[in-house]
Amino acid sequence: MGMEDLSGKVAFITGGASGIGLAMARSFAAEGAKVVLADIEVGALEKAEEELRAAGAEVSGVKCDVSDPASMAAAAEAAIEAFGKVHVLCNNAGVAPSGAIDETTPEDWQWCLGVNLMGVVHGIQALVPRIKAQGEGGHVVNTASVAGLLALPTLGIYTATKYAVVGISETLRAELEPVGIGVSVLCPAFVKTRLADSHRNRPAALGPGPDEPDAFMTTSLATATEPEVIGECVVRGVKRGDLYIFPHPDFKIAFQGRADSILEAFDNQ
Ligand SMILES: NC(=O)c1ccc[n+]([C@@H]2O[C@H](COP(=O)([O-])OP(=O)(O)OC[C@H]3O[C@@H](n4cnc5c(N)ncnc54)[C@H](O)[C@@H]3O)[C@@H](O)[C@H]2O)c1
After folding, report:
1. By CB distance 3.0 to 4.6 Å, which of 98, 107, 116, 166 could disulfide with 148?
2. Does a structural domain hold residue 3?
3. Domain tally, the chain
4. 158 is an active site residue
C-alpha cells in the first residue's frame, strides 16, 4: 500500500536535524510535502529548519526527546498545530553506544533502548491514532538498520534495539493494513552521518559516555553512502508501499548466510 502523491502531505520526522532524518526531510520536501523536524539537538534543529525553508520548503521544527512519551506527545501536538494533519511518520532518531555486551552499563542500555526502541513506540502511540482518525491513509517509516537483521559484534545494544524495530514494523504493517496505512522499515548499512558521535546527545543524568567517538564507526561512516541516497530510497519505498527498504543490496549475501543457518537448524532438530 503506497502513497503515490506526497504533495501537500505532512511528514513528521524524528531525528530530523541531522544525517538520514534531514535527508528524508529534503526528499519529502522535494516532493512538495510539508515537513516537521522533531529533534533533541536545538542548534542543529534550527540550522536544518533554516536550510529547508531557504530551499522553499514548508517546515516546522520542534524540540523533542523521543525517549520521553510526554515530550513526543507534545511534539505531535505542535505538528498538528503547525500543519493541521500528519500523514507520514518517520521514527528515525537513533543513537549507537558501542562496546562488548559484558562491558556495557545499565545506563548505556537505558539510553539506547529509550531512544531507538521506545522512541519508535512513543512515535507510534502519539501519531498513529491521529493518522487513523484523519481517515486519509498514511505511512509509517521506522529506521532500523542492517543491524536489525544481522548481529554486529561490539554493537550489541544497538543490534538488540534494531531487531526489535524490525519486529515492531512487521507487526504494525499487519495491524495497519486494514485501515489503509502503510508501514516500511528502513535498514541501511553505513551512511555518512554523525551517528558515531551520538554521545553528544547522551543525557547527563545517565553519566558520561566515552571521551572519544567510536574509532571503527567513525572511519566506516566517513567514507560511507551519502544520506541523500537514503532519503531518495525512503521516498521511493513510501510511494511503492514497500515493507523493507534496503539501500545497500550488497548486504543480501550476509543475510542469506544467517537465513540459511536458521533454515538448516529447523531441519536438524
Ligand atoms: N549512519 C549509519 O550508518 C546508519 C546505518 C543504519 C541505521 N542508521 C540509523 O539511522 C537513524 C538516524 O541516524 P543518523 O545516522 O542520521 O545519525 P545522526 O547522529 O546524524 O542523526 C541522528 C539524529 O537523532 C537525534 N536524536 C538523538 N537522540 C534523540 C532523542 N532522544 N530524541 C530526539 N532526537 C534525538 C540527533 O540529535 C540527530 O539529529 C538512527 O536510527 C540510526 O540508528 C544509521
Report:
1. 166
2. no
3. 1
4. yes
Q: Which has the closest alpha carbon to 196: 178, 172, 210, 214?
A: 214
Mean pLDDT across 26-44: 98
Q: pLDDT tens digit string along 185-237?
A: 999 999 999 999 999 999 999 998 888 888 889 999 999 999 999 999 999 99
Q: What sign has the CA pseudo-torsion 162, 20, 60, 169?
A: negative
Among residues 12, 111, 158, 246, the one annotated as catalytic is 158
**Burial environment of residue 65 by CB neighbours within 10 A (0 to 12, 13 to 18, 19 or more):** buried
Beta-bridged to residue 197, according to DSSP, are none
Whether residue 244 lies inside any domain: the answer is: yes
| pTM confidence score | 0.98
Pocket of ligand 1 (CB under 6 A): 14-15, 17-21, 39-41, 44, 64-67, 92-96, 115, 143, 145, 188, 190-191, 193-195, 198, 201, 221, 224
Neighbouring CB atoms inside 10 A of 249's CB total: 8
- Domain assignment present for residue 118? The answer is yes
SS3 state of residue 249: helix
